[in-house]
Amino acid sequence: MADYLDTPVAGRRRRFMRIDDDAVGAGAEKVARFFGTGQYLMWQTVIVIVWIALNAGGWFIWKWDPYPFILLNLAFSTQAAYAAPLILLAQNRQEDRDKVTLSADRRRSEQTKADTEFLARELAGVRLAVGDMVSRDYLRHELEDLRGLLERLEAKL
Description:
Elements: H1 21-35, H2 38-56, H3 70-132, H4 136-156
Keywords: Membrane, Transmembrane, Transmembrane helix
Pfam family, one: DUF1003
InterPro entries: DUF1003 (IPR010406)
């Protein structure tokens, strides 16, 4: 054990096997994705129909799961016991990805807003500068006034 907080503790050996969370999560997503397909529902329906037909019908001699189909119910319960956590794990991973995407979208949105505000200020500055510029008609009128003034001065001389 470390005597001080800044001294690292020697690593402990793991007694159990090491589990890669990403690999388990990716596998859970694949299973959850498969559970949501029509192919899975079709195969499960076919298996259940065959199971019931073989165990309830009179043509098969060895009935491994007679009428209340307890073994079939156990299989469904086991499937549900594994399916629910796998689906929740896949949803949690998707939620984590959504958070990262939302964060990136938020940053992009903030940058876009800042760029838009900057461009709006620049545009307002350009409009003010253009408003201070002399228009062609105003300049023409002033030049005509100066020409008239020069003509009067020449006439006096």
